[in-house]
Structure formats: structure tokens, C-alpha cells
Amino acid sequence: MKEKRDEMNSIYTLIKSQVDKLPISESKKNKMLDQLLKVKTMTVDAREPRIALVGRRGSGKSSLINSMFGEKRQYVSSVKSGTGKGKWLWYPSENNPKIRLLDSRGLGESEAPTEAFEEETPLEELISAVTGEQPDVFLFLIKAKETDSRIEEDLKELNKLRKIVKNKHHYDVPVICVVTQVDELDPPHYKQVPFDAHPKKKQHIDEAVSLMEKRFKESDIPLLNIIPICSYIDFDENGNIDYDMRWNIDELSTYLIEALPSEAKLMTAKAMQSHFVKKKFARTIVSTFTAIASLIGAEPIPFADFPILTGIQGLMIVVIGFIADKEINTKTASEFIAALGINVGLGLLVREGVRAAVRLIPGAGLAVSGAVAGAVTYGIGQAAITYFIEDKSMEQAKEAYKHANNVYEKEEKEEIIP
Predict the structure, then answer these.
(1) pLDDT tens, residue by residue, 284-337
(2) Distance between CA 143 and CA 181 in Å, rounded?
(3) Helix (H) or strand (E) holding 335
(4) In the Cβ-directed half-sphere of 189, how many Cα atoms lie within 13 Å?
(5) Which helix (H) or strand (E) holds 337?
(6) Residue 134, CB half-sphere, CA atoms under 13 Å: how many?
(7) How many CB atoms neighbour CB 340 within 10 A?
(8) What's CA 63's distance to the chain center, in Å?
(9) Do 305 and 377 form a contact (C-beta atoms < 8 A)?
(10) All residues at 6 or more sequence positions from 280 whose CB lies less than 8 Å from its CB, including other chains
(11) Which of 174, 224, 209 is nearest to 52 (CA)?
(12) In the Cβ-directed half-sphere of 24, how many Cα atoms lie within 13 Å?
């Protein structure tokens, strides 16, 4: 990761230095730099997320880890409490750290866990863990069949943990409630994904979610969302997926990324196994870079912004490749743009020609120039998602570029022309 961070930092530093040299007003320059700072936070300053899993014994914390990563990384106990000492763990492994996870002894357990533990109670284990290391988000897990049981004490302990983190680390930890094992709700014979396709099953899932909304409101705990899931996944002797009944894991993963601090989003998206989640976050990245390109392209400075836009587009491709867990550098990014058939020099002249042509239209020149810069950047970004994340062919990437470019230009024109 250090090499990739250094590379992204080099590109960012080059772009920033070029923006600093632009002969424009300080207010416009500061606006550009503010946008670039957001990019730096997400890319250069990227770090692994710290996710705390909290819930009763048997609520499915370890199963959720397996489900989100699609690999059997954590022991799952079917009877006794499996997880012992509340501990921060690296996933997939200590030698390949991608995500920092706090898995702990289940709240409300009556038997000692099968693993070693230190503190007397699960709450003490968690207090010790969150005091030493700040979590970015709490995932509170509750079995669908237990949402109508007395969980006031569990939520009270969760609130206590949030207050401890706020006092110790000055951070208000967001909470996502995860209603697990919805496959066990009536009717028990219906075990098909999606579970909400069955009217009766959907009714019971909705009831479980409503009950948790009520519980959190009564406990005065701010809640980002409540997401019902099934995380059941089984593996064969070789570690390959043998049976997959996962449901709503993509939605949970998406909300998880949204809940995290900006500097933790990129590493999380990279670590997720779901292509759906990777694509969704990559589209956010493309939108961010497109906005910056439009802002810079709107300045009527012939050719001066060319290296800035080139740098922005190159960094965007490097970041998308990183999300796809592929080795992409500036050279690869340049080759990709060339393979799309985009003649950078011709594109620049066309853009400058557009500027010259619209000088007679008051107020239109800047908007059209920015639209062209935005359209090209947006098209390149969508093509990169198609090629690197979806693993489609270069021909399909070219089609994605053309389509995205046309869609963006059409939408911009509709906004500019009443």
C-alpha cells in the first residue's frame, strides 16, 4: 500500500502545483483546492477502517465476517460462545491487513467462550478494546427472532460504549443495526433468495425492522440504518463456496462504506468481495473527479489546464484500479486512455475551438468548456469501471466511454439551455 500511496501522492502533488500556478482569482483557486483536498483525503490519506461488531451470543458476528469477505476467515461456533477476548483483528490476515475488525464475546452469554478471554464480562472486554483503539462504526447485530425479546440492556451497553469512545477519542460513532438470520422467520420452509419475495416472510422481516426502530428510539441511540440480512454461506474442504444463501449483504456493505470517515472508504471498498459494492463506490469516485475536471475546465485559460486535467484523469484510473485490486500505475492509465481511442491533443483543440465559438454567447463559454472537460472525464471513468472492475473487454469499455460521454453532455445541455 505504501508504494501505491506514494504514487497517488506524487500525482496529487503535481496537480496541486499546477492549480497553484493558474492565473485565476484566489476564491476560484481555493474552490479547486478544496475539491482536491477531498480527493487527497480519500486516496493519499487512505487507511484501513476500524469496524466494531456488537451483539448477543449467536447473533452471527463471525458469520457476517465470513459473508462480507466471501472467505472462511473466522471460526463459527454453533452452540457455545465462540469468540473469547474482545480483540481487534486484521482481515484477511496479519500478513495482509486490509480491514480492522473488533469481534468480541457476545452480550448476554451465560457460558464461558471456547476461546481464551481476559475480562470478566463481555462489556468489560468491549470497553477495554474501544478505549485502546477508536472504532469508526458500530455494527449492532440482533437475530430476527429475538427483536421482540428484552434487549434494553444490550442497547444500554451499546450507548455506554458510544459515550466512552466520545469521551476518550472525541468521536461520535455511527451505528448500523443488522437484523440477522431472517431465513429463520416464518414460514420456515421458505429458504429462497430474495427472502422478501414471499409476502408472509416480508411481513415478518418488516415487523422485525420496525421493532428495532422502536427499540433504538426508546434507547435514544442515533441510528444510520436498520438492514435485515441472511449471511449463511458454507465452504467445502478447499475453502471454496459450497452453498450461498446470502441476502442484502451488498446493501449492508454499501451503507457501511457511507458511514465510514472519508479516509477509510477506499480501503474498505477494495477489501469487499462484492463487485456491486466496488462499482457503486467507484462511481462515487468518478463523480468526484468529474466535478473537479468541470470546475477546472470552466476556466478560460487556453492550454494552461491541460496537464491538470490529464493528471486528474490519470489519478482517477489509478484509484479505480486500486478498488478493483489490480496493479494500475500512471503508465497503465495513459495506455488505457490511448486504447480507448481518445486523441488527447485533438480533444484539447476541439475544446479550445468550442471556447472560441461560444465567445459571442454571453455567459455560455465557461459552461460549455466545463461540460466538455467533465464529459471526457466522466466517460473515461465509466470506461475504467467497465474494464477494470467488471472485467469487460476493451471494446465494451469503448462503448461505455461513448455512452457515458453522450449521457453527460446531454444532461449538461439540458441544464444550460432552458
Answers:
(1) 999 999 998 888 877 766 554 567 888 899 999 999 999 999 988 888 898 999
(2) 6
(3) helix 330-339
(4) 0
(5) helix 330-339
(6) 15
(7) 18
(8) 20
(9) no
(10) 254
(11) 174
(12) 21
Output the nine-digit C-alpha cell for 349: 483543440
287's enclosing H/E stretch is: helix 275-297
Return the C-alpha cell found at 99: 480491514
Q: How far apart are CA 95 and CA 225, in angstroms?
A: 33
Q: Is residue 397 within 8 Å of 383, Cβ to Cβ?
A: yes
- CA angle (398, 405, 29) in 5-degree steps: 120
144: its cell numbers: 430476527
Residues comprising the chain, all counted: 418
Residue 386, all three cell numbers = 467497465
Q: How far apart are CA 278 and CA 271, in angstroms?
A: 9
Over residues 378-401, mean pLDDT: 96
pTM to 2 decimals? 0.83
Between 270 and 75, the higher pLDDT residue? 270
Closest CA to 290 of 346, 352, 413, 373: 373
Distance from C-alpha of 153 to C-alpha of 129, rounded to nearest angstrom: 20
H or E element, residue 409: helix 394-416
Distances (CA, A) of 244 to 195, 204, 228, 240: 13, 22, 17, 11
pLDDT digits (tens, 9 = 90+) for 252-263: 999 999 999 999
CA distance 326 to 116: 38
User: How far is residue 11's CA from residue 354's CA, in Å, rounded to a whole number?
Assistant: 28
CA separation for the pair 283, 7 (Å, rounded): 22
Q: Hey, CA dihedral for 231, 235, 239, 240, is it positive or negative?
A: negative
Taking only the tens place, the pLDDT of each residue in 335-367 is 999 899 875 544 444 444 444 444 444 444 444
Query: Which residues neighbour 216 within 8 Å (Cβ) at sequence distance 6 or greater?
Result: 155, 175, 177, 223, 226
Distances (CA, A) of 418 to 369, 411, 412, 414, 415: 18, 12, 11, 7, 7
Q: Which of 316, 302, 301, 305 is nearest to 379 (CA)?
A: 316
Contacting residues for 195 by C-beta, under 8 A, at least 6 apart: 182, 183, 185, 201, 202, 205, 230, 247
Q: What's the rounded Cα separation, in Å, for the pair 208 and 154? A: 16
pLDDT the model gives residue 414: 54
CA angle 84/88/279 to nearest 5° reads 120
Radius of gyration of the chain (CA): 25
Mean pLDDT estimate for the chain: 82
Tell the burial category of 222 from Cβ atoms under 10 Å away from its Cβ (0-12, 13-18, 19+).
exposed
Mean pLDDT computed over 81-86:
46
